[in-house]
Fold:
Amino acid sequence: MSAIEHGSGAALSALLDRHRLAIAASLIDHARTVDEIVTASGLARPVVLQALGVLRQTGLVEQTGDGYTMPVERLVVLERIALEFDLGRRYDEAEVDVVLHTFHLDVATLRRHLIDERLLSRTRENGITRYLRSGGRISSIS
Structure:
């Protein structure tokens, strides 16, 4: 069982760090090598290596051969990212992309995952696409 399934506060607390959250977000869609994580997250290699060590210790990330993967904690990472959006506020796509770009260069994929998990919802208002936080935790993880 993973650290999350055991209810480890350390695993959830690890995602409070924006660098570790960005790295976890880069692993949401598939396994990556360190170089791919550097590219996807936009972080320096030493920062990525240090953060991967913490994420491995907490059970959020596993090493597989020459790469890293996030086994089953995708929803935990997505819920943490959803906290970046204010409840009740409607966002246009550009605003959502600015927030998501902090965590992952492929904002379209990350936005799609948030919508698929019902953490963000998308509506059309007068021909304009709007996004609203529609799920996840109410307050930050502590």
Summary: The mean pLDDT is 83.
